Amino acid sequence: MPPLLLPLLRSNVIGELLAWLYLHPENEYSTTDLAVRTGSSQATMSREADRLADAGLTLERRHGNLRLIRANLDTIVARPLTDLLAVTFGPAAVLPPLLQPISGIDEAYIYGSWAARHANQAGPLPRDIDVLVVGSADEDELYDAARTAERILGREVNISRISSATWTGDVDNPFVISLRSKPLHSLIQKRITS
Question: Above 60 in pLDDT, residue 191?
Fold first, then answer.
């Protein structure tokens, strides 16, 4: 079934792969790294990388045994494709690097309508992005990350923070109960904080 976030594509993996490449065009990624980032197998990532290279959407180079891939920004579809990816699969590629450097994040998830569409639950396209941060991260840093993400994604990004104790142990919290009963898209999991 094509992804509801962008039914023009065959799968969420392709959408996330393209988002990582086109929303971070200054970076090259190995197929192994992209497989981890998209939650796919190495074999799947190699096949998709072949298809994208054959279509002229990516550029590749070899460094020893590594196959390094990056977006081809010289193609006529680069700008519109980047814009389309930002508003569809962008949150999965934009938020992790913004949250990663913030200390005190144990886990982070996208929830709400974007996570539901990513899980192929029917509904309208998301108008905003809802993020749950589990841990003790500084709220000002989270606010700054949300504003940066908004500029890239072209929509509002709302970050809610709860403690690890509330997330793992509070069985009576209506917010936690509601979140756990609906799709969540993991951004950062179980990181050890310093």
Answer: no
